[in-house]
Amino acid sequence: TLNNAGDPTFNQLLGINIKGKIVGYFGSGAKGHPNMGYRLKPPYQQGNYRSENFPGSVQTQVTGLNDLGVTVGFWSSQNKASQLNDNFGFYLTGGTHFHSVNFPTTNNASPPVNQLLGVNDRDVAVGFYVNAQGNNRGYEYNIATGHFSRVVEPGAPGGKAGPSLTATAINNLGDVAGFYTDSGGVTDAFIITADGSFTKLAIPGASMTQAFGINDSDKVVGTYTVGTGSTAMTHGFTWKPGDGFSTVDDPHGVGTTIINGVNDRGDLVGFYTDSAGNTDGMLAQPSH
To answer: What is the predicted pLDDT for the residue at 182?
Structure first.
C-alpha cells in the first residue's frame, strides 16, 4: 500500500514504468478536496513523492508515463460540488515543460472533457474526449508531430452514431487497449493491434470489463465487475494472449480492487477501498 501523506484517505496509482517510477494523485475531487497529481520513485518513501500539477490548474491527475520520463494526464480549472468539471489533456516533457492537448472538434460536451491516459516510448499518447451527445471518443496524439487520429471499433457505425469508446493505454508496438460500450449497452475491454486487429476482452459472468494498461508483451490489465448495485464487487485482472485472464485482488481490498498500470516487468499499480472506506494506492510485484 502506497499513500501520499497529503491525503491518506484517497490515493490512486495509475501508471508505472520499467524503472519503477509511478504516477497518480491524491484527493477525491469532491468540493474542497481537489485532485493533486504526483510522481513517486523507489524506494517509495514519503520523501520520494514529487508534485506534478498543471500550472494554474485547480485539479490535476497524472495518469500515465513512459520509460523515458514523459508523463500525461488531465487538468481542470474547476472543483465543483457536482464534480461536473472541465477537463483538458496535457503532457509533460523534461520534467518542466507542460503542454495542453485537446482533440480538435466543435462537437464538445459542456463542460468540455479531454483526457490523455497513456503514452509509449515513441511519444504517442492515447485518450478520449466526450462529444455533445455524451459519448466518449478515443484518439491517439503524436507529441512530436501534433497529429491526432481516432481510435474506433472496426466496422462500428461512424460519426455521432458510433459506440462510446475510451482509449486508455498504448505500448511501443502501437497496440492500444481500452473499453467500449456495445450495441446492447454492455461495456467490454478491447485491444487493437497496430495492424488493426480488434479483440474484445470480456470476463465470463462479468457485468462490465474495462482495460486500463498494456505492456510490450500485450499483457493487459484492468478491472471487472460482478453483480450490480449494492452487491457489486470489483476485481482487478490481467490478460495475456495464450494465457487468458487472471484475477488480481489486493488482500486488503478483495472485491474493491482496480488495476490501472503494468510495466514490462509485470509490476502492477492501482488502488482499492479498505475497511475504513479509504481509497488506497497499491503496488503489486511478481515474486521473482
So the answer is: 84
Cβ atoms of 75 and 60 closer than 8 Å: yes
Cβ–Cβ under 8 Å, residues 132 and 107: yes
The three grid cell numbers given for residue 56, joined into one nine-digit string: 494554474
Q: 104: cis peptide before it, omega within 30°?
A: no
CA angle 22, 117, 185 (to 5 degrees): 130
Q: Which helix (H) or strand (E) holds 101?
A: strand 97-101
Note whether 182 and 162 are within 8 A (CB).
no
Provide long-range contacts, Cβ within 8 A and 24+ apart, for 200-208: 201/239, 201/245, 203/237, 203/245, 207/232
State the Cα–Cα distance between residues 219 and 260, nearest whole angstrom.
Answer: 12
Model-wide pTM > 0.85: yes
Find, among 106, 110, 102, the residue nearest to 128 by Cα.
102
pLDDT of residue 184: 83
Please give the Cα distance from 73 to 116 (Å, whole number). 5
CB atoms within 10 A of CB 257: 25
Q: In whole angstroms, what is the distance from residue 187 CA to residue 203 CA? A: 11
In this predicted structure, the answer to whether residue 288 has a pLDDT above a threshold of 60 is: no
- For the chain, what is the radius of gyration of the CA atoms? 18
Distance CA 140, CA 124 (A): 7
Contact 71, 41 (CB under 8 A): no
